[in-house]
């Protein structure tokens, strides 16, 4: 999957499940401090990313993901490893 | 004013302890626990499989050195291992302490502090954790090292053992009423209390008239509504139960409704926010082929129930066969093992409209226009509720009072917390800290006397939310009140922050203060504040010792009477002196403690 497709997937989750117009415009934007996602939205984002991309984010991934860029890079890495 | 159902004796449980109940359920091979994942795949476990696996683990626990009565903390997502671990601890004669697993994509610092505080407060000797959770529990375990460490289920070699003799008066569960880092209170419940609670619940929905009850639960199992209300009640019947993780529900609320339909579930509880989330996020196309007609008990509790949400839910999902009478507001608290009152099953929910001004004066007068409050029904059989005034005497009929409850499922107390227990349990009565009104024998919740913010069914102490403001420039330190309330026209509890600005705050700081407060709280607690009100210094009402009176602040705010103190100068001082006698009398009549002087308002 190309990076553009991953970005599009994340955007679609943000739009449909979080009610956000865009979240990937600034890769350095932090999920909590800048995008101000609360705990419910973060949980939703994690579960939806797993559903959408058919990957499994580990607990370690969860804690390493601070920015949108981290999230996209983690999805990329998991997909390269061959999904679940 | 009190309502008793003491004349209806509490129903006798089908077994005296959870251990005996497991033994009994294990003899029903047709009854299953079903675990559903995000792809709606199921994994099935019978109670006899739970018993057999748990017995092996119980042997391993005994060999590790776990003694009867000792606490073992459990940190798992919703999965078969959680249920096996829980019953293993019980079969070893020990006491399970379910704690919540780490937050996803969230900050861990707060989680570590909170979990460590709960491990210490419960005196847990061992932590049993899911393999994936265990890897990141390291910091927690450093902060609060249990003497026997942390083990995964797979680390323990099953070892055959006879179940430990457990008596009804022995502790069966320690649960936390609110997860707080400062002062977590471990609620200690005996087997007898737990069995009495689930017997009372099951008597409310007997298998009769061709209905065989079956539960559906996505609620977290470290919370009483999920563990006691769903798992233990299914065990006592015994009856089928389908379990799904809370994170699955939050991401895909439609899977709740689809699951109820698919497994013909009859009983499925949730806090108000879950019903609101369905209205917001479930799309018609998610519900193709769904039939909700089996759902008889859509119980709604653990936070304020919004009549608007109930009505909207009924009208939205009637197309899919939802029975209008299924929605059942309930009231309870973890100190009572779960439920205290229940609206009648099989009858549409009712609400009453109370005159707004009378209500503010503590009088429940029904009116055509005003505040609509849902009835949470009558006490369960064997339970009793009483409304008391601040002096502890029962209030007159029609007055708002502090709600006390009595019944067969009250906690023994807070574990090793004699002071806190003595404050909560007096002569066999439990101080719920909630404010209520009784109308025609039915309880209506008006607000809270104790300081607690309930969001999405979870309790938070306001102190922790307010502490997030310590480093916010322009906010007056220690002078904020975080309060939760259900707005009159709202659908869910909102978090309101009342904060005084610093006298030296610049106009630039004042402009951005609400936004910076919101960010600080989100950053520290992952909670989104719905509304920030910046107040003049000295505006928040305080007690004589300088503590902020949050409940009073909220009620003044809602009435539009939260006003700054009048600046003191020679003229106002003179006027005040002249009128002080009158004012003093008036204050006493009003029952408030007036606006504090500058000198007394700094503490917090």
Task: Please tell me about this protein's structure.
The complex is a heterodimer of chains A (about 80) and B (about 600). Chain A is mostly helical and about 80 residues long. Chain A contains four helices and no strands. The mean pLDDT of chain A is about 85. With about 600 residues, chain B is of the alpha/beta class. Chain B has a domain at about 460-600: GMP Synthetase, Chain A, domain 3 (2-Layer Sandwich), CATH 3.30.300. The longest helix of chain B has 21 residues, at about 570-590. Residues about 590-604 of chain B have low confidence and may be disordered. The chains are: A mainly alpha (about 80), B alpha/beta (about 600).
Q: Can I get a quick summary?
A:
The complex is a heterodimer of chains A (84) and B (604). Chain A is mainly α and 84 residues long.
Looking at this protein, list some descriptive labels.
heterodimer, A: 84 residues, mainly alpha, Non-ribosomal Peptide Synthetase Peptidyl Carrier Protein, Chain A, 4 helices, 60% helix, globular, B: 604 residues, alpha/beta, GMP Synthetase, Chain A, domain 3, 6-stranded antiparallel sheet, 4-stranded mixed sheet, 18 helices, 28 strands
């Amino acid at each position: 999957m190309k990076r553009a497709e991953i970005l599009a997937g994340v955007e679609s989750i943000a739009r449909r499940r979080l009610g956000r117009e865009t979240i990937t415009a600034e890769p350095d934007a932090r999920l909590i401090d800048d995008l101000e996602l609360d705990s419910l939205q973060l949980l939703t984002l994690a579960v939806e990313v797993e559903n959408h991309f058919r990957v499994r984010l580990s607990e370690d991934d969860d804690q390493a993901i601070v920015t949108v860029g981290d999230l996209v890079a983690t999805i990329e890495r998991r997909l390269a490893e061959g999904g679940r | 004013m009190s309502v008793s159902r003491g004349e209806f004796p509490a129903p006798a449980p089908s077994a005296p302890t959870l251990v005996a109940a497991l033994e009994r359920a294990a003899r029903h091979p047709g009854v299953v626990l079903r675990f559903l994942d995000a792809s709606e795949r199921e994994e099935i476990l019978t109670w006899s499989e739970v018993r057999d696996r748990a017995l092996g683990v119980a042997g391993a626990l005994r060999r590790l050195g776990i003694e009867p009565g000792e606490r073992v903390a459990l940190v798992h997502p919703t999965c078969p291992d959680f249920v096996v671990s829980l019953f293993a601890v019980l079969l070893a004669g020990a006491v399970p302490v379910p704690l919540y697993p780490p937050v996803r994509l969230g900050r861990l610092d707060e989680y570590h502090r909170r979990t460590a505080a709960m491990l210490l407060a419960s005196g847990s000797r061992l932590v049993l954790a899911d393999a994936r959770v265990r890897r990141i529990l390291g910091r927690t375990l450093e902060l609060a090292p249990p003497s026997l460490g942390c083990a995964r289920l797979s680390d323990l070699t099953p070892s055959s053992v006879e179940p430990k003799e457990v008596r009804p008066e022995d502790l069966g569960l320690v649960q936390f009423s609110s997860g707080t880092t400062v002062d977590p209170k471990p609620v200690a419940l005996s087997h007898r209390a737990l069995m009495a609670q689930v017997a009372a619940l099951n008597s409310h929905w007997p298998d009769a008239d061709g209905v065989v009850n079956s539960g559906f639960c996505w609620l977290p199992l470290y919370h009483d509504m999920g563990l006691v209300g769903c798992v233990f009640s299914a065990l006592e019947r015994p009856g089928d139960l389908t379990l799904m993780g809370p994170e699955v529900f939050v991401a895909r609320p439609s899977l709740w409704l689809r699951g109820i339909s698919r497994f013909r579930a009859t009983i499925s509880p949730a806090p108000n926010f879950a019903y609101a989330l369905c209205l917001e996020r479930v799309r018609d196309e998610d519900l193709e082929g769904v039939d909700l007609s089996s759902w008889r008990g859509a119980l709604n509790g653990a936070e304020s129930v919004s009549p608007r949400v109930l009505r909207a839910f009924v009208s939205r999902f009637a197309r899919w066969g939802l029975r209008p009478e299924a929605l059942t507001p309930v009231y309870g608290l973890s100190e009572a093992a779960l439920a205290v009152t229940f609206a009648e099953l099989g009858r549409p929910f009712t609400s009453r409209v109370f005159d707004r001004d009378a209500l503010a004066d503590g009088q429940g007068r029904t009116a055509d226009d005003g505040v609509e409050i849902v009835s949470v029904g009558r006490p369960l059989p064997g339970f009793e509720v009483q409304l008391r005034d601040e002096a502890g005497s029962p209030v007159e009929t029609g007055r708002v009072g502090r709600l006390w409850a009595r019944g067969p499922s009250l906690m023994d107390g807070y574990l090793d917390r004699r002071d806190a227990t003595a404050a909560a349990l007096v002569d066999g009565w439990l101080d719920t800290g909630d404010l209520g009104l009784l109308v025609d024998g039915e309880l209506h919740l008006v607000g809270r006397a104790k300081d607690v913010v309930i969001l999405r069914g979870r309790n938070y102490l306001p102190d922790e939310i307010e502490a997030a403001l310590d480093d916010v420039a322009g906010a007056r330190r220690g002078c904020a009140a975080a309060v939760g309330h259900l707005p009159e026209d709202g659908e869910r509890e909102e978090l309101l922050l009342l904060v005084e600005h610093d006298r030296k705050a610049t106009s630039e700081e004042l402009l951005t203060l609400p936004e910076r407060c919101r960010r600080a709280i989100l950053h520290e607690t992952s909670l989104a504040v719905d509304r920030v009100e910046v107040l003049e210094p000295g505006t928040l009402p305080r007690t004589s010792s300088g503590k902020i009176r949050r409940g009073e602040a909220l009620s003044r705010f809602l009435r539009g009477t939260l006003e700054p103190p009048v600046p003191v100068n020679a003229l106002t001082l003179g006027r005040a002196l002249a009128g002080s006698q009158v004012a003093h009398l008036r204050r006493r009549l009003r029952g408030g403690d007036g606006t504090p002087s500058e000198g007394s308002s700094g503490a917090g």
